[in-house]
Amino acid sequence: MALRGVDLTISRGEFVAIVGGNGSGKSTLAKHFNALLLPTEGEVIVDGLNTRDHAATWEIRQRVGMVFQNPDNQLVATVVEEDVAFGPENLGLPPAEIIRRVDEALAAVDMLEYRRREPHLLSGGQKQRVAVAGILAMRPQCLVLDEATTMLDPQGQREVLGTIARLNEQGVTVIHITQDMDEAALFRRVIALADGRVALDGSPQDVFRSGDELERIRLALPPVPVLAERLRRDGLPLASSIFTVQQLEDALTQLARKRPQASERVDGAH
Amino acid sequence: MALIECENLSHVYLKGSPMETVALTGVTLSIDTGEFVGILGPTGSGKSTLIQHFNALLRPTSGVVRVAGVATNDPKADLRAIRRRVGLVFQYPEHQLFEETVYEDVAFGPRNLGLDEEGVRERVDDALRSVGIDGSKFGQRSPFSLSGGEMRRVAIAGVLAMSPQVLVLDEPAAGLDPQGKVEILNRIRDLHTSRHLTVILITHSMDDAAQLTRRLIVLNKGRLAMDGSVREVFARAEELRGMGLGVPAITELVQRLRRRGLSVRADALTQDEAQRTIKEALAWN
Q1: Chain centroid to CA A262
Q2: Which residues of B touch A253 (CB under 8 A)?
Q3: Rounded to whole angstroms, how far apart are CA atoms B191 and B187?
Q4: Which positions in chain B touch A218 (Cβ < 8 Å)?
Q5: Does the beta-carbon distance from A259 to B267 stay under 8 Å?
Q6: How far is A27 from chain B (nearest CA, A)?
Q7: Domain assignments of chain A as residue spans, ordered by start
Q8: Element (H or E) spanning A157, and its range?
Q9: Tens-digit pLDDT profile for chain B (285 aa)?
Q10: Which of A35, A74, A124, B235 is least enclosed, having the fewest CB within 10 Å?
C-alpha cells in the first residue's frame, strides 16, 4: 500500500515542497495530481474535475503538468524548439499561436538562445528547463516536479529552482517533490509524507522545528538550521524561521551591528 | 609507491569517428594507499571516465595509468588482478543485482575466483557484515524484496567480497533519502578506518565531500582543475562556483559573513568550527 488516507488541499498560487524518505509515497502522490494514477479509494479533485472521470483526463493534464527525474527520458525531438512545440501541436493550435507559446515558454525558463540546439548536447539543468518549457507551452495552472532536481549537479539544481520560483511569482502553482531538505526550506509550505500518510504539513518553520520527528521519518535537518539551533542554544537571539544561508547571514550580520564590541574584520587575518 | 598513478592521461571516445568526444585531457595525479579522496566536477567533466581508468575498464587514448606499478595499457598486464585490487561501484549499483538470493548475488564474484564453498561463505558473510546487512536474516531473501538503501548495500557487498584494496564509488548516496544517505556514508567511512581500504568517491554534494574526505580532486571539462586538501579546495569558492559547483553550506555562510565585515575564519568546514568562529566574531561568550 503506497498511500493510506491522504487528506490535503493545495490552493491556487501555492509554492509547496513535498518531502519524504524512500518509499514514503511522495512520487505516488504526485502522479495522482494529474491522473497518471487513480486512487484505489478516495478522490482527487483538480480544479473541480474528478480524476476518476475519464472524460476529464486530458483537461486535467493540461492544467497540471509534470516534470520527471531523469532529464534524458523526457525530451522527444531533435531540436529544442520542436520539443517545446510538441504539446501545443498536439492541441491542434494554429502555427502562429504555437510559435508564440514556444517563444514565451523558452523565455520563461531562460533558454531562448538555445532554441535551435540539439537537446542531447545540453547540460542536465538545461534539459530540465527545456522539459519545464514543454509543460509551460501547454499553459498549465500547476507545475508538479517529481524529483526533477535529484539527478542534477548543484548548478543545474540552482537553475531549475530559480526558474520555478520565478514562474510561481507569475502565478503558476508549483509542487516540488524532493528529498533535499535544503531545497524544501526555500518553499512556503512543506508537506512531509511517511508510510503513505501526511506526517507534517506547514511552513518550513513548523516542519523543521520537529527535528526528532524528521529523523523518525527518515529525513534530516540540513546543516544551516542545525548550526542556527546550536547558536541559539549558546544564547544568540536567532529567530526560529532561519533555514537558509541567506537568512542566517542576514541575522548574524544584524546581530554584529548591534554589538559594537564585536571585533572588526582585519583584512588578511582569520 | 603510488597505488594509482595517471600520467598525462587523455581519453577520447569514438576517436576518428564523427562522434569523437574528448572526455579527459592531460590528467596527471597520484593516489596513495590509505587515502580517502573525493572527486568533484560538474556533469560531463569526465569523473566517470576517470574512475573507469582506475581498474582498467577503460584504457588511456594517450598517457599512462599505473595501478600498483602496472601500466594498464601494457599488453602483458594482468587486468583481472587489477580489477580484483580496485573494486568499482557504479551509480545505482542495485540495478546490477541479478541473483535469486542476497547470498548468491554477493557470492558471484568470490565463486568466480575459484574459492571453495567454505571460502566463498566466509567472504560473503564478511562483506555483508561490513555493510550492515545481517546475512542470517537476509541471505536467503530475494535482493529485490529489500529497500533501495539495503539493495545498494548488498551491491556494494558484492564488490567488497572480492577483497579489493581500493574501493571506487560513483555517487554512492544518489537517490537515497537523508537517513539512507547517512547510513551508507557512515559504512564507507567505517570501511576506510577499520579495514584500511583506500576510498575514492565521486560526489555532487559539497557537504558530503567536506565531512568524509580529506583530499579533493576537481575536474572541469576533462581537465584536472584542482587537487588539494578539502580546506584548500573549498577556499577557492569563486572558481568552484564558476564551474557550476559550490562549497559546503557552512563554508558558504562563513565566507559570506566575512564579506559582510565579520571577522570569522573563512575556511570553517564543520559545525564546530563555524559555531566557534561565529561566537568569537560576535564576542559572544
Answers
A1: 39
A2: 257, 260-262
A3: 6
A4: 177-180
A5: no
A6: 13
A7: 15-221, 222-261
A8: helix A154-169
A9: 799 999 999 999 989 888 888 999 999 999 999 999 999 998 889 999 999 999 999 999 999 999 999 999 999 999 999 999 999 999 889 888 989 999 999 999 999 988 999 999 999 999 999 998 999 999 999 998 888 888 999 999 999 999 999 999 999 998 888 888 888 999 999 999 988 999 999 998 999 999 999 999 999 999 999 999 999 999 999 999 999 899 999 999 999 999 999 999 999 999 999 999 999 999 887
A10: B235
One-character DSSP codes across B22-58: EEEEEEEEEE-TT-EEEEE--TTSSHHHHHHHHTTSS
> Which among A155, A218, A264 has CB closest to B263?
A264
Q: Do residues B24 and B225 touch, judged by C-beta distance below 8 A?
A: no
Residue of A116, A108, A175 whose CA lies nearest to A148: A175
Cβ contacts of B246 within 8 Å, gap of 6 or more: A154, B206, B237, B240, B252
The model's pTM = 0.85
Yes or no: say if B143 and B151 are a contact pair by the CB < 8 Å rule: yes
Cα-flanking dihedrals φ and ψ of residue A255, to 5°?
A: -60, -40
Digitized pLDDT (tens) for each residue of chain A, 270 residues in all: 889 999 999 999 999 999 998 889 999 999 999 999 999 999 999 999 999 999 999 999 999 999 988 888 888 899 999 999 999 998 899 999 999 999 999 998 889 999 999 998 888 888 999 999 999 999 899 999 999 888 888 888 888 999 999 999 999 999 999 988 989 999 999 999 999 999 999 999 899 888 788 988 989 888 999 999 999 999 999 998 898 899 999 999 999 988 765 555 544 444
- Find the DSSP H helices in A9-94: 26-32, 57-63, 80-90
Separation CA B67–CA B199 (nearest Å)? 14
Radius of gyration, CA atoms only, chain A: 21
* Cβ <8 Å between B244 and A156: yes
Q: What is the Cα–Cα distance from B204 to B177, expressed in whole angstroms?
A: 15
Which residues on chain A are in Cβ contact (under 8 Å) with B177?
Answer: 20-22, 24, 179, 218-219
Q: A15-221: which CATH topology?
A: Rossmann fold (3.40.50)
Task: Say yes or no for a CB contact (<8 Å) between A245 and B279.
Answer: no
Q: Which residues contact B234 (CB under 8 A, 6 or more apart)?
A: B206, B210, B216, B240, B247, B248, B251, B267, B269
Q: Cell match 547470498: residue?
A: B103
Residue ranges of chain B that CATH labels 3.40.50.300: 4-235
Best to test chain A binding among B253, B255, B265, B267 (most A CBs inside 10 Å): B253
CB contact under 8 A, B284 and A154: no
Report the topology of domain B4-235: Rossmann fold (3.40.50)
Candidates B177, B271, B275; nearest CB to A179 = B177
